[in-house]
Amino acid sequence: MAHGRTYRTNVKIGNWNEDLCLEEDAKKEYLEKKERGELAAQKADFLKQNILRPVNLSVTNDGRLHFGDVVMLVNLGGENRERSAVSINADMNSLIKIPSPGIQAPCGVSAGRGMQPCARTAFIITSVDGSPEGSTLLFEQSFALKTTSGFARGLYLTSDLKSFQKCAKKSRLQEVNLEDDGSFLSWWKIVHFDPQERLEYEGQPVPANVEVLIIHCKTNQALAVLGDQILWTTYGKEYEVTAHTFLDSHKAEQDNNHWILCTSDPAGDGLVLLKHPENSKVLTQANPDSV
To answer: What superkingdom heads the lineage (predicted)?
Structure first.
């Protein structure tokens, strides 16, 4: 018959002194990290506190988009996905505190279901051809989309031809991310969502809060959200964002590629899209006053 332990629980055995020292060192290291704010929970709280800080979107008085406007890029959803907005997908590894707190490039993007304007979801329409700030953005005119300054660092929404080593993590399609270099890879243009009316609208002012396509200038691929590619991020369940044109049987882009550049309600009561959904109508020749 096997015998159990014959010593008391307070008897020290083995490398008890070494174990005690290691435990004290671990506790000391924990307290030092806590004091410096380097614990994982502290980093996550600090990240969310700053990147989810509210941002005021631009108010358009003439119904058009302008260079310098702060907007949100919203997809109304589809068969397998909810309404979502292009968002900075920054995690604790993207966080830097020197010389000032912020996120570092390159940084990923995703489509989050949160509709609150904040540093994570706000983008600035930026000129790349010398157009002055405040001038009207036109269909087919090149521009850049830049995050807000400060914690979001003013990074550019960028894409490039996919390769074996550089592509979207889930779908393996063309990757979209944020870079600090405003090169040709960060140039985009807006076209009408209906191919049959695209030519008529070329060179016309782009209205705010209507469905359009956002095309990458170098690769000619449309910005897209994928409802069947789920990303589990620091902010919850979100969708993958890529640059890929999805065509239906009529050679028209599918709703994965349809985006609304949302502005703020003039009354200061949230997004026009949420407060006045009737204003977020589809742009057609039947309502030319939208231009």
So the answer is: Eukaryota
